[in-house]
Design goal:
The chain has about 475 residues and is of the alpha/beta class. The chain is about 40% helix and about 20% strand. Helix 3 packs across helix 7, helix 4 (about 90-100) packs across helix 5 (about 105-125) and helix 5 (about 105-125) packs parallel to helix 6. The structure holds adenosine-5'-diphosphate (ADP).
Length: about 475
């Protein structure tokens, strides 16, 4: 399909109480293509009053949606999943246009994002309670699950579809209503997905979408509303910390998927072919713009030169360009700030003595491109080992023994995911117990799966998305005691 035809089908307004409407005062914000810098579409730019209207709609719709039979909620999600699969190519192209990821990866994200809708359509009808005697035998204990209430969902720009479905689907499955605020850089995919939910029969007010260039004030007003019961956020740790503080007065349930600084450890007993393939996937998926992206390659000294040469050869063969062009595996970074950050981290490492093996340059515009880059022998203390790179830069540090590798890997406030390559089972098991991360890839470079509990330890967050755990983020437990009916 022609791009302009697709873009014309994406709504421009705010979805509030089942209607697409303009923002207060007709304010708009511009969405750009990061590969060309060109304007893609102008959409509604919500004010604080618009945010409050969305909150009103979510609160008003909650009682009826919570009382809707789980099977009906499940079928709405299943219908949405089927529609999403039918429109997979449209969603993939839209993500490539607004976010920049190569089309093949955008197709992968449609599959991944749709899986959350299918998974939670299945989970909706499987929420269970328990019934049993108390140990004294004097009473009966009933444990039941209830939707938490209206939720506010804030999503980032790097996975425009999957981050939205990973929150919306479990919320709806549990019987919650939502206001969702997508990232202002990539709002179109969420609007397109919301339109699909409406087409599938979503009642008015159950999902409300506010797109805004003033995320701070609009969010603060919604988070401060006493009817809100839950906040789910995916984004950077500093913003997550600020939102947690805002959520405290309302004692809101919170889910926080924050930053990462993933170690990727290659032991001397690793299968190097697998490790190189895993490294390329763990680093360059989404042009490195993923909180699960491997940030630090910690490689045993006996293999480090061969590992470095092999990844460098692959990196030098990567094609850079707009994600719609065939063969491209490195699209643009999201904006100028992202390019400046990659440049600053690489320059700092090189100034401290790291060796630049490939790349290292930002490209001339239009578009915000940074070359895929390899730096080896990165000295401890370099910024690139402490900060989340969020770009196509592979930084390598040698190590000598297992304790050394574990110490380097855990030397960060983050704890989202780790990757370990070893053919030694006992060593792999030791790593499961020693690495301080919420997820781990053991001889594999990508761990995301709708059926798994995604989430981090330490500064990487609170709560889990996906898996059996995912729906419980949107449910609250009630325990009831009744006397022994036999007296
Ligand atoms: P990133 O660095 O990946 O852009 P952010 O944490 O800045 O991550 O953004 C993630 C999401 O948080 C986006 O939807 C953004 O609009 C939103 N956001 C940013 N600042 C605030 C804020 N002060 N209050 C609420 N949401 C915010």
């Amino acid at each position: 399909m022609h791009e302009s035809e697709l873009l014309a089908r994406v709504p421009e307004g705010l979805l509030i109480n089942g209607e697409w409407r303009p923002a207060e005062g007709g304010r708009t914000l511009d969405v750009h293509d990061p590969a060309t810098g060109q304007l893609v579409k102008q959409i509604a730019d919500a004010s604080v009053a618009d945010g409050k209207a969305a909150m009103d709609a979510a609160a008003a719709a909650f009682p009826a949606w919570a009382a809707t039979p789980a099977r009906e909620r499940a079928e709405l999600l299943r219908h949405t999943f089927d529609l999403l699969k039918d429109r997979a190519e449209d969603f993939a192209l839209l993500m490539t246009i607004e976010m920049g990821k190569p089309l093949a990866e955008a197709r992968g994200e449609v599959t991944y994002g749709a899986e959350f809708v299918r998974w939670f359509s299945e989970e909706a009808a499987h929420v269970q309670g328990r019934y049993g005697a108390n140990p004294e035998g004097t009473g009966r204990m009933i444990v039941s699950q209830h939707p938490v209430g209206p939720c506010y969902l804030i999503t980032p720009w790097n996975f425009p579809l999957a981050m939205a479905t990973r929150k919306i689907a479990p919320a709806l499955a549990a019987g919650c209503t939502v206001v969702i605020k997508p990232a202002e850089l990539t709002p179109l995919t969420t609007m397109f997905f919301a339109q699909l939910l409406v087409e599938a029969g979503l009642p008015a007010g159950v999902v409300n979408v506010v797109t805004t260039s003033t995320a701070g004030p609009v969010s603060e007003a919604i988070i401060g509303d006493p009817r809100l019961r839950k906040l789910s956020f995916t984004g950077s740790t500093p913003v997550g910390q600020r939102l947690l503080a805002q959520a405290a007065p309302g004692v809101l349930r919170t889910s926080m998927e924050l930053g990462g600084n993933a170690p990727f450890i290659v032991f001397d007993d690793a299968d190097l072919d697998k490790a190189v393939a895993g490294a390329m996937a763990a680093k360059f998926r989404n042009v490195g713009q993923a909180c699960t992206a491997a940030n630090r390659f910690i490689v045993h000294r006996s293999l480090v030169e061969e590992f470095t040469e092999r990844v460098t050869a692959q990196v030098k063969g990567m094609k850079i360009g707009r994600g719609t062009e065939s063969g491209v595996s490195i699209g643009p970074l999201i904006d100028d700030r992202a390019v400046a950050k990659a440049r600053q981290l690489v320059d700092d490492a090189v100034e401290r003595g790291a060796e630049l093996r490939a790349g290292g340059q930002a490209l001339e515009g239009p578009g915000t491109f940074y070359e895929p880059t390899v730096v080896s022998d990165v000295p401890e203390g370099s910024d690139i080992l402490r900060e989340e790179i969020f770009g196509p830069v592979l930084a390598i540090v040698p190590f000598d023994d297992e304790d050394d590798a574990v110490r380097i890997a855990n030397d960060t406030e983050y704890g989202l995911v780790s990757y370990v390559y070893t053919e030694n089972l006992a060593r792999g098991q030791r790593m499961i117990e020693r690495l301080e991360t919420g997820m781990m890839g053991l001889n594999i470079g990508v761990v995301s799966n709708a059926a798994a509990p995604f989430g981090g330890w330490k500064f990487s967050g609170l709560g889990r998305e996906g898996g059996a755990e995912g729906i419980h983020e949107y449910l609250q437990t009630k325990y009831t005691l009744t006397p022994n009916p036999f007296g």
